Amino acid sequence: MLPRFFLFSSVIFLLIGCRPTGVEAQTRDTGATRPQLGSATVTSSSPLMPMVDRGDDPIDILPCTAAANDCTLRSAIALATNSGEPFTIYFADNLMITLSAPLPPLSANNLTVQAQPGQEVHINANGLGGNVLYITGSNVVVDGLRLYGAGAGFSNVWVGGAATNVVIANNVIGDDDAPAGNCGLSELSYGGIYVDAVDVANGRSWVWIYNNIIECHHGQPGDGITIATSGVYVGENKQGSANNSQRNVIRENAGYAVRLGEHPGNTIRNTLIHDNRGGAIFITNFNNNLLDNDIR
Fold it and tell me: Domain 12-295 maps to which CATH number in 2.60.40, 2.30.30, 2.160.20, 2.40.50?
């Protein structure tokens, strides 16, 4: 039976029980859909498409041509920022990218960063003083990646500035998708996803977060998702679909699964939440939609 929320005071604390172990820990996610990588809708019809083919991260910007071994993720982001055109960043193969310094913001509009179906593309911020991805552009899609290692005070994904129409889908955020309970890669991170973007035209953000695994954030406060704005939709896509293909799993974080606080006008639905030390959802403003979540 789905949990119901009882409003006893101006603050709701939905607390999760102790972490299961053994066979229970191995089987507790039965029925959850693992992210199918590379399946979000690309925002542009004819984008430029550089292919990242290096896992190292030199600071020098490389040309990203059709030649082999000349395109880093940092270089591809720089090209997108300067292009002024719709832009999609793909990856040549499975890659383990360990950053040598924080990446520049994803400030370009109409930008997609997307792993191909079946690829494993890891981006490790290596505990440095920055986020893994900082999104300030609009019409941005982040799809099918494994993002972890943000430094203290930073999140693995931060959507800020005047960003709007952002999709974060089919990612593993906070860990490398090791077995449940096997954390250790985001020990310093503020959290998984932090959203405080505001579209100045209407005073809210438009962000869709679905079919992600968000886990293992053990910094301060260590929340899975922090929402400090309005217009964020967790557990559904832009078309309003909210089924197993859009279901998030938020687990094993040091803080809350989702921290809404006083911010209204958001939706949290269709999400499996368990074993977060702080609790499930922190909320002080009841003008939000909490629907069909599975809290254990």
Answer: 2.160.20
